[in-house]
Amino acid sequence: MSLTPLAPEPITADPPSTTENPLLTQSWLDLAFLHWAADPEDVAPLLPAGTVPDTLDGVTYVGLVAFRMHRVGWFRLPGVPYLGTFPETNVRLYSVDAHGRRGVVFRSLDASRLIPVAVARTAFRLPYLWSRMTIRHNDDTITYTSTRRWPGPRGAHSRITVRIRESVQDPTDLEHFLTARWGMHNTFLGRQMYLPNTHPRWPLHRAELVECEEDLITAAGLPKPVGDPVSVLYSPGVPVRFGRPARPGGIPTP
Where are the alpha helices (DSSP H) in the chain? Predict the structure, then answer.
């Protein structure tokens, strides 16, 4: 695993730039963040060319993030209420590229609307998968369920229940590392793509993991997590803007 030519950019709780002319708008609501420590050597082969695992004190992380996508919209158009609103659960890794840009890499994104899944797979080459999903609230407890339909492995599933605890007034370095992510790395038509995003600072709560039964992580090609997550967080959510993809040289497109 080679080192990146530039030092990784600082981790900031607020976005380092603005998105005046968004490519996509959406909101992420009722998020549960579960994270396990991982060996960078296990993660490196699963990342796009031109990126390496992003680490904190020599450790990288595997994230299982369940939430509700709300009103996805293109450009400055209003978000779509039905097709643009659905439960989602993703398996994500942490990456940094040769320009020092920190980001996430999605190994899988299970969602309950077939048309958005097909569009995301075709237009952005993202590993979206069509699944049967629910999100249920019961006082301070939220349960997220997912069972994969297409394209597979069919039946890959998750059931996550978290109990929301106290708000996080002063996030730890790890909590910043796992949540303050301002871009996504992917490969599009054989070329590296970096898609920046901006949103307000995360309103975070610590959370108690009541239940986690899943095989989405191993279905995404990663070793089965050992033990309990090292971090469990909840957020009521944020509105999000995605900017235009950056050119290979790191310069945003107009």
Answer: 40-43, 114-123, 173-179, 216-219
CA distance 182 to 103: 6
Q: Which residue has the tokens 């320009």?
A: 99
How far apart CA 16 and CA 46 sit, in angstroms, is 27
Q: Is the pTM of this model over 0.85?
A: yes
CA dihedral of 231, 106, 18, 237, whole degrees rounded to 10: -50
In tens, the pLDDT along 35-93 reads 999 999 999 999 999 999 999 999 999 999 999 999 887 766 665 665 689 999 999 99
Under a CB-based contact definition with an 8 Å cutoff, are residues 234 and 184 in contact? no
Collapsed DSSP state (helix, strand, coil) of residue 97:
strand
Q: Is 176 exposed, middle or buried (0-12, 13-18, 19+ CB in 10 A)?
A: middle
In 3D, which of 12, 24, 121 has the Cα closest to residue 71?
Answer: 24
- The tokens for 166 are 């106290």
Instruction: Dig out the tokens for 108 from the structure.
Output: 């899988």
